[in-house]
Amino acid sequence: MESGEFPAWLEVLLKDKFFNACLDHEDDKKNEKNILCIDCCLTICPHCLSSHTSHRLLQIRRYVYRDVLRVEDGSKLMNCSLIQPYTTNSSKVVFINERPQSRQFRGSGNICITCDRSLQSPYLFCCLSCKISDVIMRQRGLSGFLRVCNVLDLTDEVTTTTPSSTLEPTGSNRTSSESSGNEGEDMFWCQALACTATTEIVRKKRSSLSTTCRRVTEVVSTTNTEAPVNFLNRRKNPPQRAPLY
Questions:
Q1: Where is the composition biased (Polar residues) (predicted)?
Q2: Which of 112, 119, 71 minimizes the C-alpha distance to 92?
Protein backbone atom coordinates (compact mmCIF):
# COMPACT_ATOMS: atom_id res chain seq x y z
CA MET A 1 0.00 0.00 0.00
CA GLU A 2 1.43 3.37 -1.02
CA SER A 3 2.08 5.94 1.67
CA GLY A 4 -0.14 8.47 -0.10
CA GLU A 5 -3.18 6.22 0.33
CA PHE A 6 -2.60 5.85 4.07
CA PRO A 7 -2.93 9.33 5.62
CA ALA A 8 -0.36 10.39 8.19
CA TRP A 9 -2.97 11.37 10.79
CA LEU A 10 -4.41 7.84 10.71
CA GLU A 11 -0.98 6.37 11.35
CA VAL A 12 -0.56 8.70 14.33
CA LEU A 13 -3.99 7.69 15.61
CA LEU A 14 -3.12 3.99 15.51
CA LYS A 15 0.50 4.11 16.73
CA ASP A 16 0.93 7.06 19.09
CA LYS A 17 0.33 6.76 22.83
CA PHE A 18 -2.22 9.20 24.14
CA PHE A 19 -2.63 10.62 27.64
CA ASN A 20 1.10 11.04 28.15
CA ALA A 21 2.29 14.32 29.66
CA CYS A 22 2.90 17.13 27.19
CA LEU A 23 6.56 18.12 27.27
CA ASP A 24 5.73 21.71 26.31
CA HIS A 25 3.47 22.08 29.36
CA GLU A 26 5.00 19.63 31.79
CA ASP A 27 4.62 22.05 34.72
CA ASP A 28 0.90 22.65 34.11
CA LYS A 29 -2.00 20.62 35.39
CA LYS A 30 -4.15 18.56 33.02
CA ASN A 31 -1.39 18.33 30.45
CA GLU A 32 -2.33 14.90 29.07
CA LYS A 33 -2.16 14.68 25.29
CA ASN A 34 -5.68 13.55 24.47
CA ILE A 35 -6.31 15.50 21.25
CA LEU A 36 -5.20 14.61 17.74
CA CYS A 37 -4.71 17.48 15.31
CA ILE A 38 -5.66 16.09 11.90
CA ASP A 39 -3.96 18.92 9.98
CA CYS A 40 -0.66 18.83 11.91
CA CYS A 41 -0.66 15.04 12.41
CA LEU A 42 0.40 15.24 16.04
CA THR A 43 -1.04 14.80 19.50
CA ILE A 44 -1.58 17.85 21.69
CA CYS A 45 -2.88 18.70 25.14
CA PRO A 46 -5.60 21.23 26.05
CA HIS A 47 -2.94 23.89 26.67
CA CYS A 48 -1.84 23.64 23.01
CA LEU A 49 -5.26 24.49 21.58
CA SER A 50 -4.42 28.16 21.10
CA SER A 51 -2.07 27.19 18.26
CA HIS A 52 -4.63 24.94 16.54
CA THR A 53 -7.83 26.96 16.69
CA SER A 54 -8.66 26.61 12.95
CA HIS A 55 -7.49 22.99 12.61
CA ARG A 56 -9.47 19.77 12.55
CA LEU A 57 -9.31 18.27 16.03
CA LEU A 58 -10.23 14.78 17.20
CA GLN A 59 -10.57 14.16 20.93
CA ILE A 60 -9.44 10.81 22.33
CA ARG A 61 -11.09 9.37 25.42
CA ARG A 62 -10.43 6.55 27.85
CA TYR A 63 -12.62 3.53 28.54
CA VAL A 64 -11.47 0.66 30.79
CA TYR A 65 -7.91 2.01 30.55
CA ARG A 66 -7.92 1.92 26.74
CA ASP A 67 -8.00 4.66 24.10
CA VAL A 68 -11.38 5.14 22.44
CA LEU A 69 -13.08 7.72 20.27
CA ARG A 70 -16.69 8.71 19.95
CA VAL A 71 -18.58 7.12 17.08
CA GLU A 72 -20.05 10.52 16.26
CA ASP A 73 -16.57 12.01 15.85
CA GLY A 74 -14.93 9.07 14.10
CA SER A 75 -17.77 8.70 11.58
CA LYS A 76 -16.91 12.11 10.16
CA LEU A 77 -13.49 10.81 9.13
CA MET A 78 -14.00 7.07 8.62
CA ASN A 79 -16.62 4.41 8.14
CA CYS A 80 -17.08 3.09 11.69
CA SER A 81 -19.94 0.73 10.91
CA LEU A 82 -19.83 -2.92 12.06
CA ILE A 83 -17.41 -2.02 14.89
CA GLN A 84 -18.83 -3.02 18.25
CA PRO A 85 -19.55 0.15 20.24
CA TYR A 86 -19.65 0.66 23.99
CA THR A 87 -21.53 3.27 25.98
CA THR A 88 -19.76 5.60 28.38
CA ASN A 89 -21.02 8.96 29.65
CA SER A 90 -24.14 8.58 27.48
CA SER A 91 -21.99 8.39 24.33
CA LYS A 92 -21.13 5.48 22.07
CA VAL A 93 -17.41 4.86 21.66
CA VAL A 94 -15.22 2.35 19.81
CA PHE A 95 -11.77 1.09 20.71
CA ILE A 96 -8.93 2.35 18.56
CA ASN A 97 -6.60 -0.66 18.81
CA GLU A 98 -6.91 -4.34 19.55
CA ARG A 99 -7.01 -5.37 23.19
CA PRO A 100 -5.03 -8.32 24.59
CA GLN A 101 -6.95 -11.54 25.17
CA SER A 102 -6.33 -14.03 27.94
CA ARG A 103 -7.45 -16.92 25.73
CA GLN A 104 -8.81 -17.45 22.26
CA PHE A 105 -12.54 -17.76 21.82
CA ARG A 106 -13.74 -21.30 21.13
CA GLY A 107 -17.36 -21.55 20.16
CA SER A 108 -19.96 -20.88 17.51
CA GLY A 109 -20.81 -17.30 18.54
CA ASN A 110 -20.08 -14.08 16.72
CA ILE A 111 -16.36 -13.18 16.64
CA CYS A 112 -14.11 -10.46 15.21
CA ILE A 113 -13.00 -11.24 11.67
CA THR A 114 -9.44 -10.11 12.40
CA CYS A 115 -8.58 -11.17 15.97
CA ASP A 116 -11.33 -13.72 16.84
CA ARG A 117 -12.55 -11.78 19.86
CA SER A 118 -16.06 -12.61 20.98
CA LEU A 119 -18.57 -9.98 19.82
CA GLN A 120 -22.24 -9.25 19.95
CA SER A 121 -24.31 -9.72 16.84
CA PRO A 122 -24.29 -8.19 14.21
CA TYR A 123 -20.84 -6.56 14.68
CA LEU A 124 -17.82 -7.91 12.81
CA PHE A 125 -14.91 -5.94 14.31
CA CYS A 126 -13.82 -5.27 17.88
CA CYS A 127 -11.86 -2.09 17.17
CA LEU A 128 -10.92 0.42 14.52
CA SER A 129 -7.53 -1.13 13.70
CA CYS A 130 -9.11 -4.54 13.07
CA LYS A 131 -11.49 -3.06 10.51
CA ILE A 132 -8.67 -1.13 8.83
CA SER A 133 -6.63 -4.33 8.52
CA ASP A 134 -9.57 -6.14 6.94
CA VAL A 135 -10.31 -3.29 4.53
CA ILE A 136 -6.69 -3.14 3.38
CA MET A 137 -6.53 -6.91 2.92
CA ARG A 138 -9.76 -7.04 0.89
CA GLN A 139 -9.54 -3.82 -1.09
CA ARG A 140 -5.78 -3.20 -1.15
CA GLY A 141 -6.50 0.34 -0.05
CA LEU A 142 -8.73 2.59 2.02
CA SER A 143 -11.00 3.79 -0.75
CA GLY A 144 -14.56 3.91 0.53
CA PHE A 145 -13.38 3.77 4.12
CA LEU A 146 -12.06 7.32 4.53
CA ARG A 147 -14.46 10.23 4.31
CA VAL A 148 -13.97 13.85 3.33
CA CYS A 149 -14.15 16.11 6.37
CA ASN A 150 -13.22 19.76 6.06
CA VAL A 151 -14.38 20.87 9.51
CA LEU A 152 -13.95 18.88 12.71
CA ASP A 153 -14.39 20.69 16.00
CA LEU A 154 -14.20 19.31 19.49
CA THR A 155 -17.64 18.04 20.48
CA ASP A 156 -16.93 18.57 24.19
CA GLU A 157 -15.51 21.76 25.62
CA VAL A 158 -11.94 21.01 26.65
CA THR A 159 -10.78 23.35 29.42
CA THR A 160 -7.64 23.53 31.50
CA THR A 161 -9.49 24.34 34.72
CA THR A 162 -11.64 22.10 36.84
CA PRO A 163 -15.35 23.03 36.48
CA SER A 164 -17.10 23.85 39.72
CA SER A 165 -20.10 21.76 40.69
CA THR A 166 -23.39 23.66 41.07
CA LEU A 167 -26.82 22.80 42.45
CA GLU A 168 -29.84 22.91 40.18
CA PRO A 169 -32.49 25.46 41.29
CA THR A 170 -35.89 24.07 42.22
CA GLY A 171 -37.80 26.92 40.56
CA SER A 172 -37.76 27.38 36.80
CA ASN A 173 -38.18 31.18 36.85
CA ARG A 174 -35.08 32.04 38.86
CA THR A 175 -32.37 34.14 37.33
CA SER A 176 -28.71 33.21 37.55
CA SER A 177 -27.98 35.81 40.23
CA GLU A 178 -31.01 34.80 42.27
CA SER A 179 -30.21 31.12 41.99
CA SER A 180 -26.61 31.63 43.09
CA GLY A 181 -27.68 33.79 46.04
CA ASN A 182 -30.54 31.53 47.10
CA GLU A 183 -28.32 28.53 46.63
CA GLY A 184 -25.85 29.77 49.24
CA GLU A 185 -28.67 30.74 51.57
CA ASP A 186 -30.34 27.32 51.22
CA MET A 187 -27.05 25.59 51.93
CA PHE A 188 -26.62 27.70 55.10
CA TRP A 189 -30.08 26.85 56.39
CA CYS A 190 -29.63 23.16 55.58
CA GLN A 191 -26.43 23.06 57.59
CA ALA A 192 -28.05 24.97 60.48
CA LEU A 193 -31.05 22.63 60.58
CA ALA A 194 -28.78 19.60 60.46
CA CYS A 195 -26.71 20.90 63.39
CA THR A 196 -29.87 21.69 65.40
CA ALA A 197 -31.36 18.27 64.78
CA THR A 198 -28.12 16.55 65.74
CA THR A 199 -27.87 18.57 68.95
CA GLU A 200 -31.48 17.77 69.89
CA ILE A 201 -30.95 14.04 69.31
CA VAL A 202 -27.79 14.01 71.42
CA ARG A 203 -29.54 15.93 74.21
CA LYS A 204 -32.47 13.48 74.27
CA LYS A 205 -30.13 10.50 74.31
CA ARG A 206 -28.16 11.95 77.20
CA SER A 207 -31.38 12.72 79.14
CA SER A 208 -32.76 9.20 78.70
CA LEU A 209 -29.39 7.70 79.57
CA SER A 210 -29.12 9.72 82.81
CA THR A 211 -32.68 8.75 83.79
CA THR A 212 -31.92 5.07 83.25
CA CYS A 213 -28.69 5.29 85.24
CA ARG A 214 -30.55 7.02 88.10
CA ARG A 215 -33.16 4.27 88.25
CA VAL A 216 -30.53 1.53 88.26
CA THR A 217 -28.64 3.31 91.05
CA GLU A 218 -31.77 3.59 93.21
CA VAL A 219 -32.59 -0.10 92.79
CA VAL A 220 -29.05 -1.16 93.63
CA SER A 221 -28.87 1.13 96.68
CA THR A 222 -32.22 -0.13 97.98
CA THR A 223 -31.16 -3.72 97.59
CA ASN A 224 -27.84 -3.11 99.31
CA THR A 225 -29.43 -1.37 102.32
CA GLU A 226 -32.16 -3.96 102.84
CA ALA A 227 -29.85 -6.95 102.68
CA PRO A 228 -27.72 -6.15 105.82
CA VAL A 229 -30.83 -5.22 107.88
CA ASN A 230 -32.51 -8.51 107.18
CA PHE A 231 -29.31 -10.31 107.95
CA LEU A 232 -28.88 -8.54 111.33
CA ASN A 233 -32.50 -9.16 112.24
CA ARG A 234 -32.02 -12.85 111.68
CA ARG A 235 -28.86 -12.83 113.87
CA LYS A 236 -30.58 -11.09 116.86
CA ASN A 237 -32.96 -14.01 117.59
CA PRO A 238 -31.30 -16.74 119.72
CA PRO A 239 -31.04 -20.18 118.20
CA GLN A 240 -33.94 -22.43 119.09
CA ARG A 241 -33.13 -25.91 120.32
CA ALA A 242 -35.34 -28.92 120.19
CA PRO A 243 -36.98 -29.79 123.60
CA LEU A 244 -35.57 -32.63 125.61
CA TYR A 245 -37.89 -35.46 126.52
A1: 171-182
A2: 71
The residue ranges of every structural domain in the chain are 8-139
What's the pTM value of the predicted model, to 2 decimals?
Answer: 0.62
pLDDT, tens only, 123-154 = 999 999 999 999 999 988 898 899 999 999 98
Beta bridge partner(s), residue 26: none
Measured between alpha carbons, how far is 34 from 25 in angstroms, rounded to an integer? Answer: 13
Q: What is the pLDDT of residue 207?
A: 60
The predicted-structure confidence for 152-209, as pLDDT tens digits, reads as follows 998 765 544 333 332 333 334 433 444 444 444 444 444 544 555 455 555 555 566 5
